[in-house]
Write a sequence for this structure.
């Protein structure tokens, strides 16, 4: 292909020159040997490998430090999300928001019902008609101090209801004042107080002596004259 | 980054422990490439140096197909062997010429990447002077009788003309016409299909003729 011994057409000459160009880039063995014999060739290779390895080591230590603080986990998550198609990233974000919204709607009613129960437990308990009757009966008959019944009466919704977690258990109303007036108590109000646990002894209610110094909750029925008429203990 | 062996003076990465500190020479008078690779993985620097000494000429010859300046070729050689070093973990030998074929693939890929980088930053060195232009014109128009027409096209001129090709065209023409490889071998080295190699070869020749046609 080298050289032009005959007259050729233009296209043939073009093809010949192309071939000659490609052959012209071939290098001689002497030049290869001269390049291979360079003493700097292998030394430059060693330095290049060391440099690449050092840079890789710095990247590895940086990645390790990020992992130590948990940053890598979030960075990988962010990178993975960004690498994914935009539609998938949007879908993931929408799903996350939906889960949060559902959680809020589920937890909100439970929180409000808990608040309602707390409010009921803190309100002063209005005397019921039944309790009034009992107090009046016991007040009319001062000598008939009934044996204290430690029968406990539930004052709150039954067990099983979510609000029953804060259920109160109370004793019967126990008379406190022996009045001359045999008139029935027509009005009054109930006041919630805290009394020493040792007060149970006066009413014959069993008590743990080790806890005598503790305070317990009690409801006092106070008449219009300001005198306490009855008491019940609440647990 | 692939695993890196703990060779003294090389990268200080957490590497494989040096299990057999015996120099590569004790492995035999002429250890096979696979044995040297295994020794390099164990941390033997002399084994890697032996591999370098054994195959550097092949890499240099291939690099000179694409680049005609010595500093470019040295850079290609170092980059090819460095890539091979860090990729030793993925090398799967077994055949007699497995390593040289594997190293040749790495070198071709390195040359291709360098061609792409050079294409992005074309320099004035690829511009032809008046003598080169006159030579080409006479060669393409004349009948071969004048002295100019008889002059051999220099490697410098040829490289400047080939630099005007796209990297893919330059790659396939160089491997087929310069390195004298077959279409199948070119396909294996480039990772292209045989049909793609043929198509690119046809396109590359037309592109080179188009470059030369300006001087007609």
């Amino acid at each position: 292909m080298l050289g032009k011994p005959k007259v050729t057409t233009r296209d043939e000459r073009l093809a010949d020159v192309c071939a000659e160009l490609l052959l012209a880039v071939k290098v001689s063995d002497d030049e290869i040997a001269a390049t291979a014999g360079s003493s700097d060739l292998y030394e430059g290779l060693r330095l290049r490998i060391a440099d690449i390895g050092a840079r890789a080591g710095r990247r590895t230590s940086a990645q390790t430090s990020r992992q130590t603080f948990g940053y890598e986990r979030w960075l990988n998550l962010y990178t993975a999300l960004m690498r994914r198609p935009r539609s998938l990233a949007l879908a993931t974000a929408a799903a996350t928001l939906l889960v949060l919204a559902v959680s809020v709607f589920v937890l909100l009613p439970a929180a409000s019902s808990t608040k309602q129960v707390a409010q009921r437990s803190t309100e002063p308990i209005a005397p019921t008609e039944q309790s009034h009757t009992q107090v009046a009966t016991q007040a009319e008959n001062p000598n008939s101090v009934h044996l204290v019944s430690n029968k406990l009466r539930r004052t709150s919704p039954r067990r099983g209801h979510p609000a029953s977690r804060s259920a109160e258990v109370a004793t019967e109303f126990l008379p406190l004042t022996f009045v001359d007036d045999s008139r029935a108590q027509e009005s009054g109000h109930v006041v919630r107080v805290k009394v020493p646990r040792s007060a149970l002894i006066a009413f014959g209610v069993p008590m743990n002596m080790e806890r005598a110094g503790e305070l317990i909750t009690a409801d006092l029925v106070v008449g219009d004259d300001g005198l306490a008429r009855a008491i019940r203990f609440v647990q | 980054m692939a695993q890196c062996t703990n060779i003294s003076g090389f990268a200080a990465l957490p590497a494989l422990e040096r299990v057999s500190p015996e120099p590569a020479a004790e492995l035999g008078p002429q250890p096979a490439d696979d044995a040297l690779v295994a020794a390099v993985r164990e941390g033997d620097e002399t084994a890697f140096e032996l591999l370098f000494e054994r195959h550097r000429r092949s890499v240099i010859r291939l690099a000179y197909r694409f680049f005609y300046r010595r500093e470019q070729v040295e850079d290609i050689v170092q980059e090819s062997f460095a890539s091979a070093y860090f990729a030793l973990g993925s090398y799967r030998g077994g055949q007699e010429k497995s390593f040289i074929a594997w190293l040749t693939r790495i070198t071709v890929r390195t040359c291709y990447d360098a061609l792409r980088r050079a294409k992005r930053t074309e320099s004035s060195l690829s511009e032809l002077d008046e003598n080169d232009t006159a030579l080409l014109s006479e060669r393409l128009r004349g009948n071969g009788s004048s002295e100019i027409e008889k002059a051999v096209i220099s490697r410098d001129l040829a490289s400047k003309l080939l630099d005007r090709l796209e990297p893919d065209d330059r790659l396939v023409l160089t491997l087929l016409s310069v390195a004298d490889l077959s279409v199948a071998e070119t396909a294996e080295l480039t990772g292209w299909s045989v049909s793609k190699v043929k198509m690119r070869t046809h396109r590359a020749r037309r592109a080179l003729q188009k470059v030369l046609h300006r001087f007609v």
Notes: Confidence is low (pLDDT under 50) at residues 1-9, 11-27 of chain B. Residues 89 and 207 of chain B are 40 Å apart (CA to CA). The first helix of chain B runs from residue 33 to 41. DSSP finds ten helices and no strands in chain B.
